[in-house]
Design brief:
Layout lengths: L1 E6 L29 E6 L2 E5 L5 H7 L7 E3 L5 H4 L6 H4 L5 E6 H10 L1 H4 L14 E6 L5 E3 L2 E10 L2 E8 L2 E3 L8 H7 L4 E5 L13 H11 L3 E5 L7 H7 L4 E3 L5 E3 L1
Parallel strand pairs: 3-4, 4-5, 5-6, 10-11, 11-12, 12-13
Antiparallel strand pairs: 1-2, 1-14, 2-3, 7-8, 8-9, 9-10
């Protein structure tokens, strides 16, 4: 299994529009962070995690020519507002299996009626994404691309984010904590992915770096990668300050699991 980080930034992305801080003006390409997405490449196919606004550019950068399924973690704009870029994979009539929790399905219908309302049909000679929503529930594994994906629910303010465990990979984005059942679901993974905004100041709906490190210790993965990073932390600073076994991810990084 291979995991590719397509985007590792928070909802503003890095650089932030109009900002001249050290990270936003950095020449280190690892400090250029698009909105959050990833690819999980399995023997049975390739699964895209989330559809952020930069999805087309991310797919081009990663030289992606085909997808077999999509996993949507939740309905916030920075994770789904690139959903129209799935159109290139479906315009020949194929539908894209897209896995989303029961509680977020209506949100997608409300946000994108042109996709999900069957009464809305594209004009002759034009297309719309053919997205086939398949629901899942927390704690009930689903088979995707020949592998069992176990949904892992974590709190994110007023909503719930659904990460997953597949084999020895655990992936959690946009969480504030790992409930005991999430820790149990993730125990034994070799590679863990967690969100972390910055050092110090707590955030009401996300881990800061210190909280993410504590969560990583609770799970006990051999290697943890931090994503959803803000411009308040540079890649080099994170490398310098993080403990062994915890590292910042960056756009384009591919790891074997």
């Amino acid at each position: 299994m291979k995991l590719t980080f397509l985007g590792t930034g928070t909802s503003f992305g890095v650089p932030v529009v109009g900002c001249r801080c050290d990270t936003c003006t950095s020449k280190d390409p690892r400090d250029r962070r698009t909105r959050n997405a990833a690819l999980v490449r399995l023997d049975g196919g390739t699964v895209l995690v989330d559809t952020p606004p930069e999805l087309r550019l991310q797919l081009l950068a990663a030289d992606v020519e085909a997808l077999d399924a999509v996993w949507i973690t939740h309905g916030h704009a920075d994770h789904i507002h690139g959903i129209d870029d799935l159109r290139v994979f479906t315009f020949r009539g194929r539908s894209m299996p897209t896995y989303v929790s029961d509680e977020h399905i209506q949100e997608l219908h409300d946000r994108f009626p042109y996709i999900f309302d069957p009464a809305v049909q594209p004009a002759e000679g034009t297309t719309k994404p053919r997205v086939e929503l398949r629901s899942f529930r927390s704690g009930e594994p689903v088979q995707i691309a020949g592998a069992a994906f176990m949904p892992v629910a974590v709190p994110h303010g007023a909503t719930t984010v659904y990460g997953f465990r597949v084999g020895e990979l655990g992936y959690v984005t946009d969480g504030k904590c790992l409930p005991p059942e999430a820790v149990r679901a993730l125990e034994g993974v070799r590679v863990l992915v967690l969100n972390a905004l910055w050092f110090g100041q707590p955030h009401p709906t996300h881990f800061n770096v210190e909280e993410a490190v504590e969560a990583a210790r609770a799970v006990g993965a051999r290697q943890t990668y931090l994503i959803h990073l803000t411009h308040r932390v540079s890649h080099k600073e994170l490398e310098r300050r993080l403990p062994p076994g915890v590292a910042p991810a960056y756009d384009g990084l591919t790891v074997e699991v």
